[in-house]
Amino acid sequence: MSPFGPGAITQIRHGAYRIESAMACDQCKRLSIAGLISSERPTGTEPVYMIPFWSSNDPSAWAPLHVEGQEFVDVPAHVANAASEAYKSHSIENYMSAILMARTVVEAAAKETGVISGSLFNKIDELEKKSLIRPDTKEAAHAIRQFGNDMAHGDIAIAVDAEDSTEVLTFMSEILYELFQGPARISGLKARAAARKQAP
């Protein structure tokens, strides 16, 4: 990213400045805004001054934020979309939203497999009873449920962080693999094996 046009310098308190610059990607040429709070004030706002400033300082914030989801092949579209939304929330550091959406995904996935009665606690246990998930996957699903319940019921005094969100999303993805993606891959493998037997 290289400075593109004049930057903006705002003194926010004594000895502290908000530095912002339009930045162009060296590859795709699209623009973003880089910013940080610094005790160093560039001599001017023109690129000739901003280039050395950004060469020695890393932006602490970018706008617009880069939002990144995930693709979930062989997962029902509405469940896959919610799971991708969980990852998008995580990518912009909205960890509570990511965890709450992961809980939603677990419940939606259970309903999609025909487990529709009772609380999420009961749905998760029923998935394991039906051998749709392994016992350790059941425990992972309950962990997601517990984290998500905190968000849903306003128990947010203790903050969640990137590690919490990453673990929750990792387990969510494993649950989706076990319920949908793994069986789809096995079916595909069986179909290819059967086709080989029928080949001349």
TrEMBL record:
It comes from the Bacteria. Residues 84-172 form the DUF4145 domain. InterPro entries: DUF4145. This is DUF4145 domain-containing protein. It comes from Arthrobacter halodurans. The lineage of its organism: Bacteria, Bacillati, Actinomycetota, Actinomycetes, Micrococcales.
